């Protein structure tokens, strides 16, 4: 018999740890997005860690800006950024306040509110593709910059909440290079995913974007 996911919200202490401890521990956890149309729940299956001042791939590597301000804490808040002029991506801030580290949510399985997610992701051929990739995940959940800074550990009323779910055992966790990260940051094996899960996105090495002529 398969155990039901634990619906207990994760406390702030969960996020107040080194990013490389938090990232793999997020696998199997449940993210709940509350919307006026109803809730959408997502089981996390793939994440990437970004370690601020120690990480050339991090948005915070060169210091604090208006864009990355949320990354500097407190832990348990949501950092949302806009990329390529088209897509939003969602991160969870972790580590001690003042030290900018965060976990990018790369992929997951929609376990509740599938119909709502389908309406936002009309191009998805199958439900396993609804949140297969960070931009798709944010789109399926209706996450944009308006949710930047949201406290996912708020006692009640937050539009984004992390639940305990069913943590994944170490034998099920895989790790490797982060997707699309260039330069010195590209060598870090800080992408974590659940082995053999069909919702995990494919790995792609960094490819320079060509300017249109």
TrEMBL record:
Keywords, alphabetical: DNA damage, DNA repair, Glycosidase, Hydrolase
Gene3D superfamilies: Methylpurine-DNA glycosylase (MPG)
Record EC number: 3.2.2.-
Residue ranges crossing the lipid bilayer per the database entry: none
EC class name: hydrolase
GO MF entry, a single one: hydrolase activity, acting on glycosyl bonds
UniProt family annotation: Belongs to the DNA glycosylase MPG family.
Record protein name field: Putative 3-methyladenine DNA glycosylase
Biological source species: Streptomyces xiangluensis
Organism phylogeny: Bacteria, Bacillati, Actinomycetota, Actinomycetes, Kitasatosporales
């Amino acid at each position: 018999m398969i155990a039901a996911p634990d619906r207990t919200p994760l406390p702030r202490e969960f996020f107040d740890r080194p990013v490389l401890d938090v990232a793999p521990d997020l696998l199997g956890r449940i993210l709940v997005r509350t919307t006026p149309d109803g809730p959408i729940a997502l089981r996390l299956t793939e994440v990437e860690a970004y370690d601020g001042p120690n990480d050339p791939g991090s948005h915070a590597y060169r210091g604090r800006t208006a864009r990355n301000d949320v990354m500097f804490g407190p832990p348990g808040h949501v950092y949302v950024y806009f990329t390529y002029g088209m897509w939003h991506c969602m991160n969870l801030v972790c580590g001690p306040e003042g030290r900018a580290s965060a976990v990018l949510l790369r992929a997951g399985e929609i376990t509740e509110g599938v119909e709502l997610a389908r309406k936002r992701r009309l191009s998805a051929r199958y439900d396993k593709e609804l949140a297969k990739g960070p931009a798709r995940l944010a789109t399926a959940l209706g996450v944009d910059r308006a949710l930047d800074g949201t406290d996912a550990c708020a006692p009640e009323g937050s539009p984004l909440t992390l639940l305990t779910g069913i943590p994944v055992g170490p034998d099920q966790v895989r790790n490797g290079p982060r997707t699309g990260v260039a330069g010195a940051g590209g060598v870090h094996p800080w992408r974590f995913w659940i082995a053999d899960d069909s919702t995990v996105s494919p790995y792609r090495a960094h490819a320079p974007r060509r300017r249109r002529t």
